[in-house]
Specification:
The structure is a single chain. The protein has about 240 residues and is mainly alpha-helical. It contains 7 helices and 3 strands. It has a 3-stranded antiparallel beta sheet with strand order 2-1-3, with helices on one face. Helix 4 packs antiparallel against helix 5.
Length: about 240
C-alpha cells in the first residue's frame, strides 16, 4: 500500500524562518512613496523653522529696541512740560525775608501735573508696544525685557527733561525777579514717583496681549491616530 500524499501547506502558513529569507524570484521592491518623502521634508522644515533667528540676533534686536524706546522719553518730557498745568505762586516780603506761598491753596494743579505724566506714560507704553510688535511679531524674552527697561529709562529721561524745561527751581530768586505780589509758575515737579512705572507696565501688558491674540502659532504635533504613512513589511506589503 502507498501512503496518501500530504497536501502542501497554504500560502499564508510559512515556516517561522521564511521571514529571514530573501524575496521570491521575480519580486520587485516598491518605489518609495512621494508622499512619504514630502512628509519627511516637511517635518524637517518644521523642526528647523522653529529655532528662531538665534540668540545673538535676538540680543542685537533687543539692544536696538531698548535704545529706541529710551530715547523716545525726550518727547514725553517735552509733552509733559507743554501740557502739564502750572501751579501759581506768589512772593511776599515779611520783615527782611522773602516768603513764597501758593496763590490758590485749594487748587489741584499739582495733582494735574502727576496725572498728565501718568496719562502720557500710558499712551507712550501703548504706542511703543504696538510698534515693537509690528516690527517683530515673534517676540522673545530679550525683546520683552528690553521693552520694559527702555520704558523705565524713557520715563526717567522725561522726568528730568520736563523739570529742566520748566520754570526755575529756585523759587525765592524767581519771586525776587518778578517782584512782590506778582504771580509766577512753580517748578515742574513729579510728586507721585509711581507714575514712572506707567510706561513700562503699559508696554508689557499691551505687548503680551498683542502676542497672545495675533502672534505666530506653533504647528500642532501629529498624533498617533492621525493620517500618516502606512507601515509596510520587508516585502513592501502594508501591515494591519
Amino acid at each position: 500500500m502507498t501512503a496518501p500524499l500530504t497536501p502542501p501547506p497554504p500560502p499564508h502558513e510559512q515556516p517561522a524562518h521564511s521571514a529571514w529569507q530573501g524575496p521570491p524570484p521575480g519580486y520587485a521592491a516598491p518605489e518609495p512613496d512621494a508622499s512619504d518623502a514630502s512628509d519627511a521634508s516637511y517635518g524637517a522644515h518644521v523642526s528647523y523653522g522653529q529655532d528662531g533667528p538665534g540668540m545673538k540676533t535676538e540680543l542685537r534686536e533687543a539692544a536696538v529696541t531698548l535704545v529706541a524706546v529710551a530715547v523716545t522719553g525726550a518727547l514725553l518730557g517735552a509733552l509733559w512740560w507743554w501740557l502739564a498745568p502750572h501751579v501759581p505762586l506768589v512772593g511776599d516780603v515779611v520783615g527782611k525775608n522773602w516768603v513764597v506761598y501758593l496763590k490758590d491753596t485749594e487748587g489741584e494743579q499739582a495733582v494735574g501735573v502727576d496725572g498728565t505724566f501718568t496719562l502720557l506714560g500710558l499712551a507712550f507704553g501703548f504706542v511703543s508696544a504696538l510698534l515693537v510688535f509690528l516690527v517683530r511679531r515673534r517676540g522673545g524674552v530679550p525683546l520683552v525685557v528690553a521693552l520694559g527697561i527702555g520704558g523705565l529709562l524713557g520715563s526717567l529721561l522725561a522726568w528730568r527733561l520736563g523739570e529742566w524745561l520748566g520754570p526755575a527751581q529756585d523759587v525765592v530768586a524767581h519771586a525776587k525777579s518778578v517782584g512782590k505780589g506778582v504771580t509766577f509758575s512753580a517748578p515742574l515737579k513729579l510728586g507721585a514717583k509711581g507714575a514712572l512705572l506707567a510706561w513700562p507696565l503699559a508696554a508689557l501688558v499691551v505687548h503680551l496681549g498683542l502676542t497672545a491674540l495675533f502672534g505666530p502659532r506653533d504647528p500642532e504635533p501629529q498624533g498617533p491616530y492621525q493620517e500618516g504613512p502606512v507601515p509596510k513589511d520587508p516585502y513592501g506589503a502594508p501591515l494591519g
